[in-house]
Amino acid sequence: MAAHAALICVDLMSLQSNGRTRPQARSFFMSQALTQRLLAELEALVLIDPHTHINPHAAASKTLADIMGYHYYTELAHSAGLPKARIEEPGISPKEKVGRLVEKLGEIDNTAQFSWLLEMCAAFFDFKDDRIDASNWERLYDAAEKRMSQPDWEQQVLKKSKLEQVYLTNDFDDPLSGFDTKLYVPCLRTDDLVFHFARPAVRERFVKATGVEPGDAASFTAGIGKLFKHFLSRGARACAISLPPDFEPLPVSPLAMDPILKAIATGKELSADEARTASRFTFWTLAQHCREHRLPFDLMIGVNRRVYEDGVYQGQDLFDQRTSLILYRRLFNDFPEVTFPVSVLSQVANQELVSYSWIFPNVVTNGHWWYSNIPTFIELDCRARLQAVPKTKQIGYYSDMYKLEFALPKFGMYRRVLAKILAEDFVIGRGWSEQRAIELGKLNLRGNVETIFGR
Amino acid sequence: MAAHAALICVDLMSLQSNGRTRPQARSFFMSQALTQRLLAELEALVLIDPHTHINPHAAASKTLADIMGYHYYTELAHSAGLPKARIEEPGISPKEKVGRLVEKLGEIDNTAQFSWLLEMCAAFFDFKDDRIDASNWERLYDAAEKRMSQPDWEQQVLKKSKLEQVYLTNDFDDPLSGFDTKLYVPCLRTDDLVFHFARPAVRERFVKATGVEPGDAASFTAGIGKLFKHFLSRGARACAISLPPDFEPLPVSPLAMDPILKAIATGKELSADEARTASRFTFWTLAQHCREHRLPFDLMIGVNRRVYEDGVYQGQDLFDQRTSLILYRRLFNDFPEVTFPVSVLSQVANQELVSYSWIFPNVVTNGHWWYSNIPTFIELDCRARLQAVPKTKQIGYYSDMYKLEFALPKFGMYRRVLAKILAEDFVIGRGWSEQRAIELGKLNLRGNVETIFGR
Amino acid sequence: MAAHAALICVDLMSLQSNGRTRPQARSFFMSQALTQRLLAELEALVLIDPHTHINPHAAASKTLADIMGYHYYTELAHSAGLPKARIEEPGISPKEKVGRLVEKLGEIDNTAQFSWLLEMCAAFFDFKDDRIDASNWERLYDAAEKRMSQPDWEQQVLKKSKLEQVYLTNDFDDPLSGFDTKLYVPCLRTDDLVFHFARPAVRERFVKATGVEPGDAASFTAGIGKLFKHFLSRGARACAISLPPDFEPLPVSPLAMDPILKAIATGKELSADEARTASRFTFWTLAQHCREHRLPFDLMIGVNRRVYEDGVYQGQDLFDQRTSLILYRRLFNDFPEVTFPVSVLSQVANQELVSYSWIFPNVVTNGHWWYSNIPTFIELDCRARLQAVPKTKQIGYYSDMYKLEFALPKFGMYRRVLAKILAEDFVIGRGWSEQRAIELGKLNLRGNVETIFGR
Q1: Which end of chain C is more exposed for a tag (fewer CB within 10 A), N or C?
Q2: Is B115 within 8 Å of C10 when comparing Cβ atoms?
Q3: Is residue C409 helix, strand or coil?
Q4: Are A45 and A161 in contact (CB under 8 A)?
Q5: Residue B358: which of A449, C26, A113, A14 has the closest Cα?
């Protein structure tokens, strides 16, 4: 990151003088340099990315299509008018796909997502233009392909992105073999178990993965225990799930689950009531296993799936802002031994997240998720968290990436917001030394990841 | 707008360097001039105002009472303690009315709404004071009346406000004659059809306007078709409706609507269920006609009518923030061919609007409505939209005005916020050229209006 | 507060030129001095604190444990991992308690709440360090104890904090004797009456306080009247209540209340329906008495009690953001003569509060409550209120304190935010004179408290 001369917005009113004279007051006029210094320190930090969707067998991109095929670009291009059929046409080459998406980049070049793309192209492929269009995309595509075909491309990306560890989100029946689990750390994704277990294919995968026939609550629970043991034997650091806005976890008696599991075994379709009961029973059982194995349980709260059914792949989900952490009241009370890193999809839920983390020892704030992952929301949310949640209970950021190259621009975006807040609110606003602000930033970006997921 | 020397808040951290050196970095210290330059370009732009309540037969004000009688002033004065009976006393002269409202201006002079008033008085009547009170209001009133009585006052206002076209909001039975529909563009307002069709007077107006006796769903639908044809023959550019927070559009079978229309015909009062069914049927029918005629359907979501029943005229409506665009899921899916410019009344609904516009090709963001139309909310909302919604899918602003004079201060307010964001987030933050930022601003202020409503 | 040189963020775009040249434009470069000047004027103002939980018989702290025992510190320390049993162990000395809490201060030193602590220690005990830890806390504790043991400590705190009057929140059966009610002004807290009257102990206290056996609605109402008369005879300035997010006040017939009061008299447990009916009847009766006695009714909306049942004392309450002022529609309409100062716990409810205060003459905005009382939320909320609510209808701030020492840092935090907004939005943004901005600030901080609670 080149050093830019800039005049930072110094918020005088957040100056929380404690009645003491402060030597740094004189340096306010040099605050642009201050922010740059903080940012440089944060940029020097080697990262652990605590939530991604990386496939450890194909972590880096092979062509620009792997990057631009990310749903952020396909869905925005589609939103801007590119037909789904053109984007997802079977059999088109990666280059053809990129070419089609490029047609619409000019209409989405205002977005933060586009700025990530440009930042990746600049950082990884020495791309110097400020637009990607018909005139230059093929050159870019070819240059990118050349780089990406280098045998150590994955290592280059990790190094340039300063990534030391990348947490995964693995299906419950993932064998977790054939990759370095010290680098790519397994996490147990449980959406299928909680919300789709009635699907024959899911149940079948469960039987295959566990060797257990889930005929009743006891055997189902035992099977889940086997999944945990498998994941833990491979160094898993978290159990994770994404949840719809209206989900309310509550305990369910095994006696209520038994007939439902029997119905599932016979392929009977569940009623809405039965489906909810099953989800609750499974969720609660997962929490119990997290407690037993002292595994953090990542809750990603608030997504409605397939709202836009004709949307592109992974571009169909939205949300209902009418949700509340009050739905998790019983869970947070009943599992004081389980740490719950919570992400909220709706920005308006951030104050609840701040307040619940401020009160519940086992609730910690976790990153800036999806529709809340743009600078204007990150700044509001991060600032409130830093003002009201114990500093040891904040996981600053995760990339949520599908391909390794995205960590660089996404963490870059977050670090810039974080450095700004540290400079304005802490060094200038509260008279902290730069060193102290940097320590807070590092705790937020990395230290807490180690502590919270460190087991 | 005079050029003010000012020191803009330069947000260093939003500097999204793409690893390239940027020549404009040196100009940060001159950023106040930058913002002024952007603003000047936006101010030079000739506007189309895509949503107003202008009466084309009396578009401009005749006295200051036409301006200060706007509900923004009467309701604020009433809120500050001026009795409704004094404001709405039958038979008082316009001057008397203004005199009474002036009593309370000192208590609302902090508001953005008051600043519009002052800006209008300065721009149109050469008023140079910074307050309007007992000492100067009569002079102002008389000066305004003199100006307003000039035969070309309407043209003066249009010219000074740089207004090329003004979209209307017409009752469904408006003859749409006697005015220049190229200047004052008709739009079909459908609240009465959807929510008040059971009122005998509304039904009667329908019969009169269409020549159709709406005895069943088929004839009712045919009648609506006639309304569309009439409006389209007069150059209508949109169908529009305001909706309560709990409205959920869903398709309804004509068979379910038939008996309800029969009940309405006999003057029978509808049950709550019947009323909801009728609203849904009518709404869905409107969407079908919008599809057929390729007319955008403006949705203004979230208003509860007559919450404060003793409030002044047009000052009785409020809202319930507990609403969600998830209620429109089926609509957005079923009508991919219809463009829905969506306004939300509640500021907390803006993130949903951003996200739904980011995903659904047929949802576009539309202005800053009513209780969200103050600078602090506009800045948050506009910034998020520019960061996450394709730039071609954002209708920056409409005035919602009842009298022509309001476009000047309202668009002025918006342009200042927009120029600030363009300077901070795009020119400084992302290294865009000024020209490129100005183009984005012009697209937002005008270009998209042409494209989206251009038919 | 020492004068710090600082460079204020000058928001050029909010410059609302009215087409006039403005002499202050040149002073933008000196805006840091401007903000300091405004702040100094606000800091010189003698305050009335319109909502606290002060015990007038022990208003000031006796040891640092009285300060650090405040739930803000115990709950944050607990949230950071300090076991409740260590914090609330019976029999530990105040010094031991502080020592235990100090262990966790290093993990919460980022919070606004910690900054209040540091500011109190600096202002009252000449504490000059920027941390409180194992190395210095005992020295601090002893120094504080020494100061606090001075016979006029309470007066010193009042003077240093520039507090002229402190409103209390008294139980309904408080004798209100033995203290200066001109300094410590009684307010009638009614949570117990509305939500816990079925508890035998509460009913008993009612009988004792009123001499009335509440056997039916008429006698209950009469008893409540006695409470009002008692409070009014002691100079009470408000009736106050905190309310859960789902409470909807509605009138209830005395005939519906009679059997419930009979059931309560016999110790019968109420059904959920009966409990709601009782709460509504009592609440409505309180509003009627407020009307009769022209007493403002403070509504503190949105708290769920005992969400975290194992939390520390007073650290168990949270909220559900899904609430709306629409629930108060009937109340606000039916009691135009009663002023309702409204606080909302959820920050996302602030726009509703702004809008309802803008429309309803009897609704005024009241402070920044609890989970919304951090600088980032205060700034958003205060800015919106100043932009859209009549300036005479805004009670800027109350401390909500349990011990006198907290007024200083809490009002300090608010004044810094307020001065920033006055400088940016009014002096610079709208060209107001400094004097005019200061007057607005003083009205907001004090003048409106006098008018609204002045009776």
Answers
A1: C
A2: no
A3: helix
A4: no
A5: A113
Q: What share of chain A is helix, strand, coil (3-state, %, to 5)?
A: 55, 10, 35
Give the number of other CB atoms < 10 A from CB of residue A39.
25
Decide if B351 and A377 are in contact by the 8 Å CB cutoff. Answer: yes
- 8 A C-beta contact, residue C359 and residue B79: yes
Compare all CA atoms of chain A with the CA of C119 and give the residue at the minimum distance.
A18
Q: What is the mean pLDDT of chain A?
A: 93
Residue A454 sits at the chain C interface (C-beta within 8 Å) = no
Q: Which residue of C has its CA nearest to A439?
A: C110
Of the pLDDT bands very low, low, confident and very high (cuts 50, 70, 90), residue A445 is very high
Q: How many CB pairs under 8 A join A and B?
A: 174
Partner-chain residue, chosen from C80, C130, C416, that has the shortest CB–CB distance to A393: C80
Question: Chain C residues with CB inside 8 Å of A24's CB?
Answer: none
Residue type, A228: F
ipTM of this complex: 0.94
A19/C1 CB distance under 8 A: yes
Interval A393-432: pLDDT, tens: 999 999 999 999 999 999 999 999 999 999 999 998 999 9
What is the pLDDT, as a whole number, of residue B33? 83
For position B16, what pLDDT does the model report? Answer: 35
Comparing C-alpha atoms, which of A51, A332, A341, A328 is closest to residue A170? A51
* Regions of chain B where pLDDT drops below 70: 1-31, 455
Q: Is the dihedral of CA A25, A28, A31, A33 positive or negative?
A: negative
Which of A21, A22, A388 faces C112 most closely, judged by CB atoms?
A388
C304: contact with A, CB 8 A cutoff: yes
Question: In the 8-state DSSP scheme, what is residue C81?
Answer: T
Inform me whether the pLDDT recorded for A23 exceeds 60. Answer: no
Q: How many residues does chain C have?
A: 455
Contact B9, A9 (CB under 8 A): yes
Query: What are the structural domains, with CATH classification, of chain C?
Result: 42-55+155-453 (3.20.20.140), 64-148 (1.10.2020.10)
Residues of chain B neighbouring A419 (CB-CB closer than 8 A): 13
Q: Angle at Cα C26 formed by Cα C20 and Cα C29, nearest 5°?
A: 135
Q: What is the pLDDT of residue A455?
A: 63
pLDDT attached to residue C32: 72
Q: Which CB contacts under 8 angstroms, 24+ apart, belong to C89-93?
A: none
Matching residue, tokens 């008495």: C289
Q: How many residues comprise chain A?
A: 455
Residues linked to residue B395 through DSSP beta bridges, in sequence order: B366
Q: Are A146 and A125 in contact (CB under 8 A)?
A: no
Contact A13 C417 (CB under 8 A): yes
Chain B contact for A314, CB < 8 A?
no
Which tokens go with B394? 């954002």
Neighbours of A173 (CB within 10 A): 17
Q: How far apart are CA B224 and CA B261, in angstroms?
A: 14
Q: Give all strands (DSSP E) within A33-125, no chain letters.
A: 47-49
The overall pTM is greater than 0.80:
yes
Determine how β-strand B184-185 pairs with β-strand B187-189. Answer: unpaired
Give Cα separations from C81 to A292, A388, C316 (angstroms): 19, 15, 15
Q: Residue A281 — φ and ψ, nearest 5°?
A: -60, -45
Q: Is A4 an interface residue toward B (CB < 8 Å)? A: yes
Instruction: Provide CB contacts within 8 A for A259, sequence distance 6+.
Output: none
Q: CB of C404 within 8 A of CB of C60?
A: yes
On whether any CB of chain C is under 8 Å from the CB of B109, the answer is yes
Check residue B41 and give its pLDDT: 98
State the pLDDT at residue B455. 64
* Residue C25 pLDDT level (bands cut at 50, 70, 90): very low
CA distances to A412, B59, B396 from A380, rounded to whole Å, are 17, 42, 23
Residue of chain A nearest B325, judged by CA positions? A320
